[in-house]
Structure formats: C-alpha cells, structure tokens
Amino acid sequence: MLDQCGVNDEARCRVLHQDGSFDFPAPTRDSARMWGVFHCRCVGSDGVVKWEDDAYNLIVNSGLNDVLNAYIRDTTQSANWYMGLVDNASFTAFAAGDVFGGTPSHAGWIENAAYSNGTRPAWAPGAASGQSITNASTVNFSINANTQTIHGLFIINNATISGTAGTLFSEAAFNGGNQPVNNGDTLQCTYTLSLASN
After folding, report:
1. Are 157 and 165 spatial neighbours (Cβ–Cβ below 8 Å)?
2. CA separation for the pair 16, 193 (Å, rounded)
3. Which domain range does residue 56 map to?
4. Both 71 and 5 in a single domain?
5. Three-class DSSP category at 116
6. Are 14 and 2 in contact (CB under 8 A)?
7. Closest Cα partner for 192 from 153, 143, 162, 158?
8. Do residues 2 and 41 share a domain?
9. Does residue 78 share a domain with residue 56?
10. Each residue's pLDDT tens digit, 130-175
C-alpha cells in the first residue's frame, strides 16, 4: 500500500491499497470541557448546620460566548461576578438559551431576593490551580424571610438584586432537591469552575 499524505495535509491523508481502495483515517483534534459546582450549607442563627448540598451547573450560551469573546477576541472582560438564588416558585427548567442582558429571558425560573445583603454577593475567586478556580471565602446570603424554598443558584456579572441586566454565566439546581431557608439563616456557598482537555 502507498501513503498518499501530503506535507501539512493531515485532513486529506489517505492510504492506497493494492486493490485500489483508500482508507481515510479520522482527523485528530483536541477538545476541552468546562464545568462548575456550587457547594452550599445552611447555618441557622444558633450556628448549627441545617443542611449541605451541591449543585452541578449548566454554563449557558451567553456565558460560553463571554469566555470566547473576552479571551479570544480580546473584548472587555467582566471584572466582577455575583451569585444569586433561584426560587422554587413556578420553576420549570433551566435552558442553555437563558439570558439577562438586553431582553431578559429565563422563563423557566425566577430569582429569590429574600436576603438582607445590599447586592447580590460577589463571587471572588482566587488564582487558578490545577485547571480549577474557586472562592476561598464563602459567598454568604443573610436570609431575612421565613419559609423560603431555594431551587438553586446562578452566576451573573451584575450586582443588582432582581436586576435584569448583565451577562448570565451559569445556573444550577441543588442535587438533593429543593432546600428550605428561614429568617436568620445564613447560606454559605462556594463555586468551583474547572476546565480540562477531553
């Protein structure tokens, strides 16, 4: 058989057999995957941990586009990111096309604003290590209403509670199902974002 590869022509590389047939090997390519995990615990006013849970996120299309634009196109990078709460009321689904900026559209869920922080609390990650980045200090929500049910969390680059502007990065539901919070509770959360080659 005869190797028909040309120089720097791997995509068209082929092997000619004696019977006249050709084999075209599959092109080689690298790929990467990005994923994030929220970890939260609810601490009562007495300091007792009521529950802990993880939430494995969906990085939405606007978040993926923001990564490509900021890193590859050298557009303005989002300087700050914030964490918000997803209410269980009327929740139906998360969707890759969910957005905030421009005309907000996340019909499957609403934000829960039942906490006394002046803004959505900032997610302030440290330096990346081992292809992961996370916040060393927890993001804390000071709950100020009774019988609230939290479905999950989201990351956005706008600090305004219930604000409709900004770039939505990710959203997630608690792995253990809906979680209750009450007045006086503190919800303490971390968000770890990882990137790896497949």
Report:
1. no
2. 47
3. 31-197
4. no
5. coil
6. no
7. 153
8. no
9. yes
10. 999 999 999 999 999 999 999 999 999 999 999 989 999 999 999 9
